[in-house]
Design goal:
heterodimer, A: mainly alpha, two-stranded antiparallel sheet, two-stranded antiparallel ribbon, 12 helices, B: mainly alpha, 16 helices, 6 strands, 4% strand, globular
Chain lengths: 322, 450
């Protein structure tokens, strides 16, 4: 398997982005299905983190621009309609959550639950769009690279494409109760996660020419180990740690991403042929190292404060952020 | 095809214009809030803390919407201008990349600053977070300005080779990042942004001072007015000085833009400065000419007898729209007016004279609005003055950079309508959040207000 350090970094950033966006998708499930419990167990994590998710999204977009600039016209023309819809929905997401947060605090006569439910539904739609673009880039279905067009109908008409999206959603649904410590039977979480993995895994095999099957299997093992570790009483505390949980998710996403490298659109595109010039690659490497160190320090400070503050709130009997 | 290109151009300008409004406020609030909190801790005056807390809530809202519109811009850049971003990706993506980390610095520090306000026992540690927030916002502005500077004065690759064959060779990302005009532009744009934000805040404080019903509330708003006025004066002073330098940079590096701004149609060695005026049938009319002033501003002498750039030395097809002469005059005239007012405020503050008269307070409100117009005029002058090029000097035209897919039209119109709702909502919502809890109640809660 060929190796390129810039693609490796892009994969790592993708893994981190996926892990952080997953926490919002899992929160959306919790909000819609267990709102009252969410107010105690989800909001104290979600409220500080949602603004950082957007930053990660921009980080990934800019990294792709720096990695494969020649691919930008293909992406821009093919997905323009979906990108613009995505933009509107993204703004709606920010508006709904910031309204929910501050309307509640200032006790306007508006239902906070409705606003959070709107946020949750919008987050599902955003997740759907991200998965559609990611999956279509992998499978190539609906995507005409020569004409630079994307046909959503053709994409959705191929069952494994839908299967991967549905399976991924089911996996996150299963993991939500573990990540947020919801009162759900752990066997049920395991069952749902396994079901989702089977659907997503089979679909992924059907839509891709996998370059490295071991990485794909390892990705599945890492994901399934989350509910299993959580079920073992001696190890449960480790998986309750949000950093460890997100580390597992990021690792899993990274390995899945790398299992098809260097090909896209079912081997129609070789990423290595689109890579940026070496001078820029070198500078991006240094920039990632410098910025990554800063990000690591900031994240450590954030989690230190967050963990200590959460303990104080939980001891005081409230999970809500003031 | 042309209509789609123009639509791309309009949509980008519209979203950038909306984003700029939010960004000036975000930068202004972050810096003023940091200074106010420091004073509160240092002087042990809880009144400052009350204001800092209120500003932090507004900052959270502006940040939330600013993040969204910033993300929109990041996506629009490659979706509306794919060919431009291909070139940027190969030569000058580095500032964008560093800007993301500045963005992280701002967002993570802001989250800690707002949501864990009472967690920090050592208040200077909490204040340090506000410094990081301000540093993040200012650094973001620095990096974005670097990209703009590169668009004005491209460097870091073989320009002749690109003009000849359209191929990118000899790439030096650091040279592109620090292009010839980058430091001058940074020195002008960043303080100008801070000035616009500080004066907008000054207007907000003045309005609240006028509305306040108690002495203690008025006292707190007056303290905030002093801080915003001093920050604003420093920023606008620097912007004025570097603005002068920017004109000299245009003279040597972007002569066509210089000629259009000054409406110099023909060669002259003792050029007059034209104030106002419009071009009718290719002839400037209705302007006031100040003989020798342009020569003096440019060469600091009335006897330099040096030629200034003029429009007819360039092909007419390369001329930018000449209305930039008026936007430039608006920027300089309005900026100078607000600068003088800021100086007056500063002198009165230093000599402990009263600035709570209606003349001063209403002037503060007008200055806040005027400086946003001034800021936008400067931005329009810079961007439109580069037309028809997206990257100056025969590198890439706007037309060749645009996405010409018809799908842009319906969805783009939808986004514009959406922005028309989202931006006013942000300002209205911030005002509501700030006004919902009266300052008197907050003072009661914290106590120890001097």
């Amino acid at each position: 398997m060929s190796f390129n350090v810039e693609v490796l970094l892009n994969g790592i950033i993708f893994g981190m982005f996926f892990a952080i966006i997953s926490t919002e998708l899992m929160a959306a499930s919790a909000i819609l299905f267990r709102y009252e419990e969410s107010t105690r167990k989800v909001f104290y994590y979600l409220v500080p983190i949602w603004e950082i998710t957007g930053t990660f999204f921009v980080f990934y977009v800019v990294n792709v621009e720096a990695l494969i600039p020649d691919a930008l016209p293909i992406l821009a023309y093919s997905y323009i309609a979906y990108i613009l819809i995505f933009i509107v929905i993204y703004i709606l997401r920010n508006l709904s959550i910031v309204s929910a947060e501050f309307i509640f605090r200032n006790r306007f006569n508006v239902n906070r639950k409705t606003l959070y439910s709107i946020y949750a539904i919008i987050t599902y739609i955003l997740g759907f769009f991200v998965l559609v673009i990611y999956t279509s880039l992998m499978s190539g279905h609906g995507l005409n690279i020569t004409a630079r067009t994307f046909n959503m109908g053709a994409f959705l008409s191929y069952l494994p494409d839908d299967g991967f999206i549905i399976g991924s959603a089911v996996v996150l649904f299963g993991l939500a109760s573990i990540f947020y410590g919801l009162d759900v039977n752990t066997i049920l979480s395991l069952g749902v996660t396994v079901a989702g993995l089977i659907i997503a895994g089979a679909s992924f095999l059907a839509i891709n020419d996998i370059s490295n099957i071991y990485l794909m299997i390892a990705s599945g093992i890492v994901t399934i180990s989350i509910p299993i570790i959580y079920m073992i009483p001696q190890l449960k505390n480790y998986m309750s740690n949000k950093i460890i949980f997100q580390g597992f998710l990021a690792l899993s996403a990274f390995m899945l991403f790398y299992s098809v490298y260097p090909d896209l659109a079912s081997k129609a595109v070789n990423v290595n042929t689109l890579l940026n010039n070496s001078a820029m690659q070198t500078q991006i490497f240094y920039a990632t190292m410098i910025g990554g160190t800063l990000l690591l320090i900031l994240s450590l400070v954030f989690f230190r404060v967050w963990v200590r503050s959460s303990k104080m709130h939980l001891e005081a009997g409230s999970g809500e952020v003031e | 095809m042309t209509s789609i290109i123009n639509f791309d151009r309009f949509m980008m300008g519209f979203t950038l214009g909306s984003h700029i409004l939010i960004v000036t406020l975000t930068i202004g609030i972050s810096v003023v809030m940091s200074v106010i909190e420091f004073l509160g801790i240092y002087l042990k005056d809880k009144g400052y803390e009350v204001i800092a807390r209120r500003l932090s809530r507004a900052l959270a809202i502006f940040f939330a919407i600013g993040t969204a519109s910033g993300t929109v811009l990041a996506i629009e850049l490659f979706s509306l201008w794919p060919n431009f971003m291909v070139l940027v990706g190969k030569i000058d993506i580095l500032p964008f990349y560093y800007e993301v980390f500045a963005f992280f610095l701002e967002s993570i520090s802001l989250v800690l600053y707002i949501y864990y306000w009472d967690y920090f026992k050592n208040r200077y540690q909490h204040w340090l977070l506000s410094v990081l927030v301000a540093a993040g916002t200012l650094l973001s502005a620095v990096f974005i300005t670097m990209v703009n500077a590169w668009m004005n004065t491209p460097a870091g690759f073989n320009l002749s080779e690109y003009r000849l064959n359209g191929t990118v060779a000899d790439v030096n990302p650091l040279a592109a990042m620090f292009s010839p005009s980058s430091w001058i532009e940074i020195g002008h744009v960043v303080p100008a942004t801070l000035a616009a934000g500080s004066f907008a805040l000054l207007a907000y404080f003045a309005i609240n001072y006028l509305r306040s019903k108690t002495d203690i509330a008025r006292s707190i708003y007056m303290k905030s007015i002093r801080v915003a006025a001093i920050v604003g004066l420093i920023a606008i002073g620097i912007a004025g000085l570097t603005g002068d330098e920017s004109m000299r940079m245009l003279y040597s590096l972007q002569p066509l833009k210089y000629a259009a701004i000054e409406l110099n149609f023909h060669s002259s060695t003792d050029a007059a400065e034209k104030l106002g005026g419009i071009v009718i049938n290719g002839v400037p009319q209705y302007y006031i000419a100040v003989p020798g002033l342009q020569e003096f501003i440019m060469f600091l002498s009335f006897n330099a007898h040096q030629a200034v750039p003029y429009l007819t030395e360039f092909p007419k097809s390369q001329w930018p729209p000449l209305f930039i002469h008026l936007t430039f005059d608006t920027m300089v005239g309005g900026g100078a007016l607000v600068g003088l007012f800021a100086l007056l405020l500063f002198i009165r503050i230093i000599f402990r004279k009263d600035i709570s008269g209606k003349f001063y307070l209403y002037s503060m409100i007008i200055s806040g609005i005027l400086l946003e117009i001034v800021y936008d005029s400067g931005w329009v002058t810079d961007e439109v003055g580069r037309q028809p090029y997206i990257i100056y000097n025969n590198i890439m035209t706007v037309a060749s950079a645009a996405n010409t897919s018809p799908s842009v039209l319906p969805l783009g119109i939808g986004i514009i309508i959406f922005y028309c709702i989202a931006v006013p909502f942000t300002f209205y919502f911030s005002a509501k959040v700030l006004g919902n809890v009266s300052i008197e109640k907050e003072i009661e809660r914290v106590g120890d207000v001097k």
